[in-house]
Amino acid sequence: MTALHTPELFARLEPAERVLVAGAGGGFDICAGLPLALSLLHQGKEVHLANLTFSAIEGLPLDAWLAPDVAVVTAGTAPHQTYFPERTLARWLDLHGYPGTVHAFARVGVQPLRAAYRAVIEAYDIDAVVLVDGGTDILMRGDESGLGTPEEDLTSVAALAGIGGPDRLVVSVGFGVDAYHGVSHGLVLENIAALERDGAYLGAFSIPRASKEGALFVDAVAHAQHHTPDRPSIVNGSIAAAVRGDFGDVRFTERTRNSELFVNPLMSLCFAFELEGLARRCLYLDRIEDTHLMRQVSSAIELFREEVVTRPPVRIPH
Predict the structure, then answer these.
(1) Is 271 exposed, middle or buried (0-12, 13-18, 19+ CB in 10 A)?
(2) Domains identified in the chain, total number
């Protein structure tokens, strides 16, 4: 049993010497894991970063590949490619004196992604893996009224669920941001309560604006927005706004001009879970187990959704 003054996630990670922090859902998801990664680095741990990528990595040179479906991205990788979140983060890390390497997993199905994770875990002798989702759709079990965009998130969960050895944990940060994609956050809370009953919920902690990690995260998001002006991350922009103390319909990109955001302090909370417990509650994980392509994952989820009786949204009282 952990002490109240020590978040259980950090108690679980305390014995680990080498930690892999990985973005689950593509895009800038790895940036949502940056405060945790920096905190672990500041504790003296060896931290490696990875992200399921939306970038075009197929044409990278042979020496950029650690193994099939996993590339090693640095500040100088593919300099002429405009959208490359992993390289953008690598450049920010270099600027601030941190190890400037981010591993990019190809957008593939469960079987090849699992092999890619194994390659990284073995290459660096990883003790613990923390899978980070910017948002909450990673917590959807499959029978909710809306799932958000679960394909990449649950492919990452399924890939890691089949790997033994290192401790495997999940962090969800950005509560409320997935309302944009039809997620009922009342159902998110219901799912978290169920995970608590199962013993898989490890509690929550916030990213304070006054912390070194919080300030660096806000700076990293601003750097990414400056260098990716056409496709800035709405998720990380919302989380960073919440960390700054902004509230309501905050405008930081034209991408949200036709929607109304509700930036609020809950977006800076990090909810932590055991990955195995989260995986057990997903109703369709077995259906995507043998996939090799992301389109197979999408088709399997679509077929499952045609068969399942969905739970209606749960309204949060106000």
Answers:
(1) buried
(2) 1
